[in-house]
Amino acid sequence: MASMLWMFAHWRDDMRINDADRAWSHAMEHYIRNEDEDLPPIWRFNYGQKLFFWLMLYGGILLVLSGLVLWFPELIPWNLRWLRYLAVFVHVTAALATIGGFIIHVYMGTAMVRGGFTSIIRGEVSDSWARMHHRLWYEQVKGKSSRP
After folding, report:
1. Do the beta carbons of residue 41 and residue 135 sit within 8 Å?
2. Containing H/E element for 13?
3. CATH T-level topology, domain 2-141
4. Which of 23, 128, 138, 140 is least surrounded, with the fewest CB atoms within 10 Å of its CB?
5. Local confidence band at 61 (pLDDT 50, 70, 90 cut-offs)
6. By the 8 A CB rule, do 105 and 111 touch?
7. Helix axes 81-107, 47-71, angle to 10 degrees
8. What's 44's DSSP letter?
């Protein structure tokens, strides 16, 4: 739970959906087809990465809360037994969503995006990769623009 709070505090501002993200989301088919040159410019994280962040954050919270109900069912009065049933449904749904999101995230980051796996191993990206995939962020880092 502490890691989720740290993640939220550290990345909250970067993960807000903005106009650049909305434009990018409307052109997502180009991303899926690896036509990166046809995508609108984006900041440090693209729309899909931001959705993944929110899925994992809220999914983790739901897993913890529903897991507490499932761990300690004796603390739930019998007249509130619907809460137990709801916890089972929420727990399974959140688990499937976060596991599915994680699988998609790993696939996209390693197999789908050219240069993605190398950047994970090295911990850095080339200037040309950053310019192609996160142009607004690249220009901000290079001092050519400022974030709105």
Report:
1. yes
2. none
3. Fumarate Reductase Cytochrome B subunit (1.20.950)
4. 128
5. very high
6. no
7. 150
8. S
Task: Please work out, in degrees rounded to the nearest 5, the angle formed at the alpha carbon of residue 131 by the alpha carbons of 22 and 25.
Answer: 15
Instruction: Enumerate helices (H) and strands (E) in the chain, giving the number of each.
Output: 8, 0
CB count within 10 Å of CB 14 equals 14
- Segment 20-44 shows an average pLDDT of 87
CA–CA dist 124, 3 (Å, integer): 23
Identify the residue whose tokens are 């897993």. 63
Look at residue 146 in the predicted model and tell me its pLDDT: 64
Q: Which helix (H) or strand (E) holds 19?
A: helix 19-26
- Residue 8 clears pLDDT 90, i.e. is over it: no
For the chain, the structural domain boundaries read 2-141
**What are 77-106's pLDDT values in tens digits?**
999 989 999 999 999 999 999 999 999 999
